[in-house]
Amino acid sequence: MKKIDINIKTKPINYNIFFTEEILEQLNPKINGHKVLVITDHNVNQLYTKEFVKSLNSDQNNLYKFVVKPGEKSKSLKKLEDIFDLLLDKGFNRDDYIISLGGGVIGDLAGLAASTFKRGLNLIQIPTTLLSQVDSSIGGKTAVNYKNIKNVIGTFYNPNLVLININYLDTLSKREFLNGFSEIIKTAFIGEKHLYQLLTKNSYNSIIKKRKLLEKIIEKAILFKKQVVKEDLYDQNQRKILNFGHTIGHVLESNNRLNYKHGEAVTLGMKYASLFSVYKNLLNRKECDKIIKKIDKFGLPTKINKNIPFKKIISVINQDKKSENNDIKMVLLDGLFNPIVKKVSLSELKVVWSDFIEEDSSD
Ligand code: GLY
Question: Has this prediction a pTM greater than 0.90?
């Protein structure tokens, strides 16, 4: 037997995240002389992209826009193929740019297009929702959904630059703002103690009124995620803690009858994972109550709005990429601020599921 040892030293991954109201100042020098495709959705197009494209200091003949319908349905292979057709037709090469201007759906779709076309184009993320500013634009995950399974086709591909302008958040509805705020609350529970204190001291109203405070909160969430992702870009170990609340969250989110947004489903998932942690004697009931109270304080759901039979939950979990035979890996809390990843069995999940539903239907 012959053995050929390939030991490739990869370049360190290094990119900047700027908080800025002057996005164009950062962007224009980079894209000058290159082809640029801006990917966006119809809502963001009306609000921002039309003006944004006009102000890009790039040859307008080399500037293209691809606009999709808002929502998860646009994270599809069909849309990806349409983007590839455009990139081929316009002769894009590896030194050209894709700019994602929008929320998580746009970031994931644009990221996957950028990472796969000709094995990688330059990518600039400009997240316009709170969810994408604190979570999906950081860490290089890209994806489309396939056969109703969320994020099942994707890559890890880091952007060249992330530009965050919190003024974009002004046009979000309260529901959409809270959709992202859920990931901020999650960050506090899984270890960002200072963020937890800020969320204890401040209400929703004070946070949205005080720009500096909001910026500080967003920055803390990003820095925490950066630290986790830096150690485990490919989601093999420590990065999994970012999925606190996501196991059950994804199941609830994918059930159309329930009509939950990602963040709403994740807060319910965090409540479930906390109850499960109590069941496993990892978390005490007082800490679990603190978690539920904090979620409730910001107006995110802690009570499921319809009774879901457990077998419906199982069928989605079985499709989920995190499941292994009859066990799944779930993020639990071994005390507040101390997330751990544990294998749990579907039968244990069932026990806590009845508690979760009973608690909620008893009020
Ligand atoms: N949203 C979880 C992660 O980026 O790993």
Answer: yes
